[in-house]
């Protein structure tokens, strides 16, 4: 069950998500142990991306994949991802497009036994590919992309993070930022060198310290949470969090359907300036159902 929206600027789903060949994804799947999932998370979700009020192109991307084969659901689950390109207009857009497209393919092809290892394999392989392109074309040197992705497998949620796009968990009337920003100011705040208020107004606020493709080595953070019925996950680029507070994310995502919440987030950020691209994924866990053939 899904609730899906495309580009907030009026584009088709092919404008908003990267293309990939499904036949490539099934390579190696027959090698997985043919186990069946115990439970299936019932997800309702929506995503929107928008250029904002100032930019002339959209460097943000989102993508997702939901397998239907029970053994793949048990071994790999369903993946949702958001990326924000950096390194200049065209280069940033290419980097985020490549990151989304390759991450999915590499993740489902990975022979790793556990989810975190499969995510690490996919991220490092994706980083190698984006970095190689950045080195091959002078105008693309230094390009990269943030990455925030969530994998729903049975009653667990596995997350991987690079950069300052975020994942929030709404549960029991509260909101919690699960991921940690990889940005210069956030690292200064965590080190106790800079106050939160100073960070908000720092000219280096948008300087990120980790990304896909900017360097030959990549060091993602990983997180794991239990999935509970009623949970709502919000993944977004900094084009949203620059203008919309955590309390407002809680209020909107907690009171509206994923489609309506995604629409309101885009409208709110644009209404307050929209100086950056804006992308948001809203994923609602509607239940955990015992699996049956």
Structure description:
By secondary structure, this protein is of the alpha+beta class. Helices cover 33% and strands 26% of the residues. It has helices at 13-16, 22-25, 70-75, 89-109, 115-136, 184-190, 196-201, 238-241, 246-255, 258-271, and strands spanning 39-50, 60-65, 78-86, 144-145, 147-153, 156-162, 166-171, 174-177, 221-226, 232-236, 278-290. Strands 2, 3, 4, 5, 6 and 9 form a 6-stranded antiparallel sheet that branches. A hairpin with a 2-residue loop joins strand 5 (147-153) and strand 6. The two termini are 17 Å apart.
Concise summary:
The protein is an alpha+beta fold and 293 residues long.
List the helices and strands and how they pair.
Layout: H1 13-16, H2 22-25, E1 39-50, E2 60-65, H3 70-75, E3 78-86, H4 89-109, H5 115-136, E4 144-145, E5 147-153, E6 156-162, E7 166-171, E8 174-177, H6 184-190, H7 196-201, E9 221-226, E10 232-236, H8 238-241, H9 246-255, H10 258-271, E11 278-290
